Amino acid sequence: MRCKNSEQQTPGRYVLTQVESSLDPDVVIVNYNAGKLLVDCVSSVFAAGAARAIVVDNNSTDGSLEQLELVIGHERLSVIRNGRNLGFAAACNVGARASSASRILFLNPDSVLATDALDRLVDVLESSETIGMVGGLLCNPDGTEQPGGRRVFPTPKRAFMRAFGLSRLARFFPDFFSDFLLYKEPLPAEPVVVEAISGACMLVKREAIDDVGLWDEGYFLHCEDLDWCMQFRQKGWKVMFVPDAKVTHIWGACSRSRPIFVEWHKHHGMLRFYRKFFHHQYPGPLWWLVITGVSLRFVLVASYYSVRYALAKAEIADD
């Protein structure tokens, strides 16, 4: 699926103006070694009319904060430096506590907002009292839609179907072989209710946060956004996907340098998510099968990355 064109400034070529917006959302950006991408992200946030950008840094060592403060001396930019890497969920909570805004946009540092994206997200969020959070259309740099921006919950059954390629049969048996990613489906013409959106771009009402609670800090990286979406829905808040709010996302830019570390926390997060919301739905033997399957998948993925690293190191040694 290709993302629709939307007015968007070229990364690195933003003109920061003192725009007084009636929308007044704060934007919380959790940074960890995002490099120049952080500058592009914050620049796009102000170009889109955000009231304030709160950058929560998880002890970066790449000079990204120094680059940001050198390029963007904006009075509405706040930087919070954590003494250690708290993880994504905990850092989001640090930013949320530092904000008094009635709306907070959680945005990944490797993302760039289209100039009209924030307006559109706010319009949809405020269109109904029952809407608690909204997410935009996540696009790759080439304009194609990314997975994850709109999805259903990856239940153990759905995850099993996807892991073994059985979700490809969904076109013939949608009730049994359904996937949990919806990006291959036709892009809706209007905002739609979905089960889950991505934490890479998530605009949330303060009222809903006060009702549901902050992010679950038991997750370090990955699946915390699914958890929050589940909690919002359990409390009766709608989660919406907004197809005409475009966000260019350099997927994995901040995590590809440590793939095994990331995969460990991804699989650990999935087990926590399953245990928290689905454990009661599965009898004991089947639940242990789920745990074994997730653990085995991590071993396979970690082995793959280890072999790749060893081969790359050997090639460098030969040169």
Strand content: 15-25%
Q: What is the typical, i.e. mean, pLDDT?
A: 83
Taking the alpha carbons of the first and last residues, their distance comes to 41 Å
In CATH, the architecture of the largest domain is Alpha-Beta Complex
CATH superfamily of the largest domain: Spore Coat Polysaccharide Biosynthesis Protein SpsA, Chain A
What is the molecular shape? globular
* Tally of discrete structural domains: 2
User: Share of helix among residues?
Assistant: 25-40%
Q: In CATH's first tier, which class of the largest domain applies?
A: Alpha Beta
Uncertain spans: 6-23
CATH topology of the largest domain: Spore Coat Polysaccharide Biosynthesis Protein SpsA, Chain A
Structural class: alpha/beta
Q: How many strands appear in the DSSP assignment?
A: 9
- Major sheet size, sense and barrel closure: 9 strands, mixed
Count of helical segments?
A: 9
Based on the model shown, name its key terms:
Glycosyltransferase, Nucleotide-diphossugar_trans, transmembrane helix, nine-stranded mixed sheet, 37% helix, Spore Coat Polysaccharide Biosynthesis Protein SpsA, Chain A, alpha/beta, 17% strand, 9 strands, transferase activity
